[in-house]
Amino acid sequence: MSLSYADVEAAAGRIDGIAHRTPVLTSRTADRLTGASLFFKAEPLQRAGAFKFRGACNAIAALSPEQRRRGVLAFSSGNHAQAIAYAGALQNVPTVIVMPHDAPAIKVAATRGYGAEIVSYDRYKEDREAVSRQLAEARGLSMIPPYDHPDVIAGQGTAVKELIEEVGPLDVLLVCLGGGGLLAGSCLAARALSPEVEIWGVEPEAGNDGQQSLAKGEVVRIPVPVSIADGALTTHLGQHTFPIIQREAAGIVTATDAQLVAAMRFFVERMKLVVEPTGCLAAAAAFEGAVPVAGKRVGVILSGGNVDPAALGRHLAA
Ligand SMILES: *Cc1c(COP(=O)(O)O)cnc(C)c1O
C-alpha cells in the first residue's frame, strides 16, 4: 500500500489535541539577508522538543489494544526516543528505548524522565536494528522505527500540512533530512497543498547519503557520519522514505557544521529561539544560498530544539 496525502490527513486527525500546532515565525532580518520571504515552522516548540512527537503519536495511536498493552520499542539517537516515551506515557503505553551509549545527556535524561526503560548499545560496533529486533521479539513489543514506517512518515507530514494551511502556497520548501521520514511526509503534504512547490532536502555535508542515493537512483549506505547534527547521523534512507523523496524532491543539498553553528547563533540572537544543530539544516541552506531563494516564498522547517545548554554555550562561544 503506498502512502498518500490521505494518510497525512488521517494522522492530523489522530494527533489533534495531543500534539501542539506549532507557530510559524518570520524575521525581517532573515528576509533581508536572503531576499526571500521565509516562513519558519517552529518545531522546537513541539511537545518533547521536536517534530518526532507527531510521528510517534500517530504510530502509537494506530496500534491495537493488545499491542498497546504489551508496549512499544524504539531505537533512536534521541528525539524519536523522547517522542515515543512521551507519547507512550500520554497514552498509557509502556515504552522501551534502545539508545546509543553516547547520546546527548539531555536526551537520555528526558527520555528516562518520561518513564521509559532505556537499553544502550555502541553505535560504532553494534547494529541497533538487530539489537532492537531481538529485544522486541523476546518481549512481544511493537517496534516503531524512527523514520521508515508509514504511520511515522504520515505523522511527520502534519507539520507541513499546518504550515501551508497557515501561510498559503509556497515556491520552495526546505526540510532537513536524516532517514527521510520528515522529508517524505513533507513531500506528501506539500505536493497536495501547494502542487508547484519545489521541495529540497538538506543533510549534513559529512553524511550526504541522501544526495548520493538520488544521484545513483537507489539507497546508498555510508559509514556513521561525524557531525554536530546528531539527529541526522543516519547511514541510509528507508525503503518507504526513498521512493517518495525520489519522486517528489527537486534535490538534496548539504550544510557544514560551521554553517549550522552560524544558523544556531542567528536563531538565539535574532529570534530568541533555541534550535538544535540538526534543526538548523534547512535554514542553513537558505542562509548560505545552497538553494536559490531570492524573491520566493520559502517554507523552512526548524525540526527541533533539544540541545544540551552546555553544548549550546560551547557552540556559540567558539
Ligand atoms: C530525527 C530528526 C531529524 C531527521 O529526521 P528524519 O525523519 O530521520 O529524516 C531532523 N531533525 C531533528 C531535530 C530530528 O530529531
UniProtKB/TrEMBL annotation:
It is an enzyme of class 4 (lyase). Residues 20-304 form the Tryptophan synthase beta chain-like PALP domain. It comes from the Bacteria. The keyword Lyase applies. Its cofactor is pyridoxal 5'-phosphate. Its EC number is 4.3.1.16. Keywords: Lyase, Pyridoxal phosphate. GO terms for molecular function: ATP binding; D-serine ammonia-lyase activity; L-serine ammonia-lyase activity; magnesium ion binding; pyridoxal phosphate binding; serine racemase activity; threo-3-hydroxyaspartate ammonia-lyase activity; threonine racemase activity. NCBIfam families: PRK07048.1. Belongs to the serine/threonine dehydratase family. This is Threo-3-hydroxy-L-aspartate ammonia-lyase.
